[in-house]
């Protein structure tokens, strides 16, 4: 899909975005399905067991015998129409993290509150984020020094932004890191109405943009913003906006696998024009994905392949993505 087919889609989405954001700004959102924190859960994923507890009883999860208290915590929130039992995003990222035994990997089960009318789902991101922060507050009461990394795709990125802000309000501390995977665009035009993810929501906010200007935000939003494949909304190897929107998830998941952390190399762009022309500073770099340069700031161009493996860093080890420990489960779910 070239620029002549992508442009009409961007214009149409801009109209939808303006209408949705304006109705929220003036407070005329129709009655929606309001999130009920008692129906929301954390799901702790391991190679052999998925363990679920309510957000309001998060301490049960943190005190679970298989929860490793000396390991960092990674929490994932997905986007619109994605539920914990039916999500391509969860499948890809959880599979990768099962190859990282040094991480506690948890999914936010927001029930059906992001599986309804899009405007309602977008509006629900604030309340879901607040509820998530309450669960995280329970965590730090029993594990005050744990490193927290929040990851969100599409609407999930904005859930994590709100969770980060609410967590700081509740505890006085910022979570370590929030990664936004192609944060959703429609309905997030006006910060006063629905702010979404932004710089300052965590000690480090990093963004991977893959369908810019259509389903996802175009402009830089974090401390470091990666633009794999450049500024075109359709990524290499894709023929649809949905494929491009999911690419951010695929890129990140690929970087989680052991020995794949340096698969994606970003070059710093000192201006948007440099990014458009892909004429960026090859001497100032950062890897993109699970492992990044925490001192890097600004926008970065990343060269990618049109099919898996997507990373093109010539210095990355040439090992397969499935090269991880085989787990022998001695107990049932």
Automatic annotation (TrEMBL):
Domain Lipase: 64-310
A GO biological process held by the record: lipid catabolic process
Superkingdom per UniProt: Eukaryota
Principal localisation: secreted
Keyword GTP-binding listed: no
Gene3D superfamilies reported for this sequence: alpha/beta hydrolase
Any single GO CC term annotated in Swiss-Prot or TrEMBL for this entry: extracellular space
InterPro entries according to UniProt: AB_hydrolase_fold (IPR029058), Lipase (IPR013818), TAG_lipase (IPR000734)
Ranges annotated as spanning the membrane: none
Location within or outside the cell: Secreted
Annotated protein name in UniProt: GH14732
Originating organism: Drosophila grimshawi (Hawaiian fruit fly)
